[in-house]
Design brief:
Elements (H helix, E strand, L loop, with lengths): L2 E6 L2 E6 L3 E5 L8 E4 L2 E6 L1 E4 L8 E11 L3 E7 L4 E7 L2 E11 L1
Length: 103
């Protein structure tokens, strides 16, 4: 099974061809293709680890959807003072489908 580890927006994702993953908002329209050049590792029977990235490797993906993720509740509280604050946050995301791993 061929897979790769890519770095995008400060996070690392293990992907293989056909996978659908959520990454932080890329600002690319639905249906367009995007290329990830920060490939940290490629494995296809034998493993190639980059230093820090694998030279000449890239991952091609197509944008499936854009939207907002589920709401995360942020609750701040300080005891004995009567201070509490409830806040919510919805992170923007882009859902991409991995088309090809180019080694």
């Amino acid at each position: 099974m061929k897979y790769a580890v890519i770095a995008e927006c400060g996070k690392q994702y293990k992907v293989s061809e056909g996978d659908v993953i959520k990454v932080e908002k890329l600002g690319v329209a639905v249906g367009e293709t995007v290329t990830f050049n920060n490939v940290l590792l490629i494995s296809d029977g034998e493993t190639v680890v980059g230093n820090p990235t694998v030279a000449g490797a890239s991952v091609t993906a197509s944008v499936v959807e854009e939207g907002k993720d589920k709401k995360v509740i942020v609750y701040k509280y300080k005891r004995k003072t009567g201070y509490h604050k409830k806040n919510g946050h919805r992170q923007m995301f882009t859902k991409v489908k991995i088309e090809k791993i180019n080694a």
